[in-house]
Design goal:
Order of helices and strands: HEHEHEEEHEEEHEEEEHEEEE
Helix content: 25-40%
CATH topology of the largest domain: Rossmann fold
Largest sheet: 6 strands, mixed
Keywords: Isomerase
Pfam family, one: Rib_5-P_isom_A
Strand content: 25-35%
Shape: globular
Catalytic activity: aldehydo-D-ribose 5-phosphate = D-ribulose 5-phosphate
Number of strands: 16
Subunit structure: Homodimer.
Number of helices: 6
GO molecular function: ribose-5-phosphate isomerase activity
Bound molecules: ribose-5-phosphate
Radius of gyration: 17 Å
CATH architecture of the largest domain: 3-Layer(aba) Sandwich
């Protein structure tokens, strides 16, 4: 099966868990986009939900496909959020998210959710976070160079994310520093250390937040639940 089919398979399985009347967090990224479409199909068949989007682009997609949207101000308690991830650490199911630039709103919605279901293809599974790619860190544009130096003192090589020759701007108007730390042995400790840096808005480390991870690969679907870190 090609990658998109695997993503769609995981997305459809997650949307099966949505019940009538739920407030549903709508994730961001290519896998989450399949979940939005699958949810919209169920809405067209009569399912009643309120969607809480984690990005402007997800909001546009959801509205275009007929999902009614709300805000966290109206619905501070989210029943279920379905979102993707860039890396999933086997065992405790800590995540790296943010390669799509939506980590801040995703983390806020995830924290307001009773359940966070992550949907991935099997290529996202790692032994250690940081094995495949960088850790995105959302930072204030003011003094970002000093913030980058502080991140490098933690061991990460910080690169300002660019788009069309300009600094990439998140929905919140911030910059993103893609930080290569290499394999991260203790993600919770690193997350806490990054959070203490003035200028950091949020990191893409989601530790202890996933309720389950739905993984699609050639052999079918597997639902992982968190277990203690080895
Ligand atoms: O900022 C974007 C989000 O964290 C995405 O969920 C994550 O990057 C995974 O995206 P994709 O499903 O496209 O690999």
């Amino acid at each position: 099966m090609d990658l998109n089919t695997l993503k769609q398979t995981a997305a459809r399985r997650a949307v099966e868990d949505v019940e009538d009347g739920m407030v549903v967090g709508l994730g961001t990224g290519s896998t989450a986009a399949f979940a939005v479409s699958a949810l919209a199909e169920r809405v067209r068949l009569g399912l009643r939900v309120v969607g809480i989007p984690t990005s402007e682009r997800t909001a546009r997609q959801a509205e275009a496909e007929g999902i009614g949207l709300g805000t966290l101000a109206e619905y501070p308690r989210v029943d279920l959020t379905i979102d993707g991830a860039d890396e999933v650490a086997l065992g405790e199911l800590a995540l790296i998210k943010g390669l799509g630039g939506a980590l801040l709103r995703e983390k806020i919605v995830a924290a307001a959710s009773e359940r966070l279901i992550i949907i991935v293809d099997a290529t996202k599974l790692v032994e250690r976070l940081g094995s495949h790619g960088p850790l995105p860190v959302e930072v204030a544009p003011f003094g970002w160079q000093a913030t980058a130096r502080a991140l490098e003192r933690l061991g990460g090589q910080a690169n300002l994310r660019a788009q069309e020759g300009q600094a990439f701007l998140t929905d919140g108007g911030h910059y993103i520093l893609d930080c290569r730390f290499g394999p991260i042995a203790r993600p919770a400790e690193l997350e806490a250390a990054i959070d203490r840096i003035p200028g950091v808005v949020e990191s893409g480390l989601f530790v202890g937040m996933a309720s389950a991870v739905i993984v699609a690969d050639e052999g079918g679907i597997e639902v992982l639940t968190p277990s203690a870190a080895p």
